[in-house]
Amino acid sequence: MNAAANAAPRALRGRLDLCAINTATLGHRAPIATVIDQVARAGFGAIAPWRREIEGADVQAIARHIADAGLAVSGYCRSTYFPAATVEGARAAIEDNRRALRDAATLNAACFIMVVGSLPPGSRDLAGARAQVSDGIGALLEEARTLGVALALEPLHPMYAGDRSCLTTLAEALDICDALDPAGDGGIGVAVDCYHVWWDPALAASIARAGQGGRILAFHVCDWLVPTTDMLLDRGMMGDGVIDIAGMRAGVERAGFAGAVECEIFSAANWWRREAKDTLSVCAERFQSVC
Amino acid sequence: MNAAANAAPRALRGRLDLCAINTATLGHRAPIATVIDQVARAGFGAIAPWRREIEGADVQAIARHIADAGLAVSGYCRSTYFPAATVEGARAAIEDNRRALRDAATLNAACFIMVVGSLPPGSRDLAGARAQVSDGIGALLEEARTLGVALALEPLHPMYAGDRSCLTTLAEALDICDALDPAGDGGIGVAVDCYHVWWDPALAASIARAGQGGRILAFHVCDWLVPTTDMLLDRGMMGDGVIDIAGMRAGVERAGFAGAVECEIFSAANWWRREAKDTLSVCAERFQSVC
Prior knowledge:
Two copies of one chain form a homodimer.
Chain A: E1 19-22, H1 32-41, E2 46-48, H2 51-54, H3 59-68, E3 72-73, E4 76-77, H4 87-106, E5 111-114, H5 126-147, E6 150-153, H6 170-180, E7 188-193, H7 194-197, H8 203-212, E8 216-221, H9 245-254, E9 261-263, H10 276-289
Parallel strand pairs in A: 1-2, 1-9, 2-3, 4-5, 5-6, 6-7, 7-8, 8-9
Helix pairs in contact in A: 4-5, 8-9
């Protein structure tokens, strides 16, 4: 049990240094250098960049820019999907992830976010996809430990089970962690994203279990809108939907999570159309009043 | 353990008498009398009507029409949502469901499908909604037994957890069954719908558990399309998506299910735009080739 267990949740008012912005929240419209400065200027303590902003660029320079701006890196998004129709495809995905892991280390990221993929085209073999995921993660674990970047398995909402993630619940993610790391040596854990797991009747039990294993590597917030008009790009700002975000944060912090609370909003029709500084301003306000 | 357990799945080729059509599959465009005749003429063995087609009409006459057409009633859709913002609202929902249960008995339905609802407007209290659901179902159980119409708790896909169903997994539905019917006297069980539960990593275990308790009251089929373009009205015809329907049917039949296999497709942009007889013809073909 982590030392922080059973403590009251941290106060976020006046503590944006405990809060992180995932760059997807701003819609990937500006160069990463601009986004780093915007996030830092708004007072946040951390940033979570995406590979599309990093790969092909000077990763060390970006890492320095982030550090010079006073930002930590709460996570690096995200893995290449593991399941593939061929052995070569599966192997290529692992190699791709290995390269990304090294960039995560260069960025000094708290974790590498694993969005695992699901059925290859034409397949209905969900069990097979799950086995490929577990094998792929297993193939990365030693390097993750060597590099000091933990693999954060992120179960996605079951509405993505057909294409984006056969990993749908924290329980299943924790089963993989336990299978690959039975001794609890670390280097592998979970990313708890409100949006993906808020509905789960086993949520409290899974969070407690994750905490006992010291497995909570990331905590992402946004909100579930009713109605939701797009399955991918209609996530809500914290407070605009039906998720009890404060309750969930209390749960993960009781379970020992002490990292940055990271806001990740995909919102093509709303937040991505606003000025970055306005979106960041609302994020800051909602972190302090809703989360 | 049911006597049918461990048997091979039934052959559906040439056995449309084992197959049912949920009237939603035809888009509720024609009067129920017309739909009954269409379904019977196409050779199916059962039908599952909706309350909108029944309430306010002569229920006994409809029941006679269905029986005279040689059709069984595989289920009656569906309950009024239980969670409400007020005590009066919750009570009214139960009374509404009580009336519907009586109609289900008149129709000689195999079960009354319980789609349970979720958060009342303005609420984020998912645990509270779940408690209201359990209480509401409990309030109906004795009458269900008296009438001889079992309550079939249908977990919906978690993408409906905000509004349509706080009941999202078979495990949770079975927990409610066990809590309300600890002695296994019956009158309560689950409806297993491919579309809602196919993604669940605990699916095989939950189906086996349901079978041991004799709790599988209904089995619904359709398919999950990739991509899915509408969260409510874009279900696919069996075979057009990624669900291993045959594998799931084998599972529920191994677990003892011996009722009609029911096709329920909400498809505003595709199947609801076709002639009913064409949709039924494709259903018949897919039941025999895919399911």
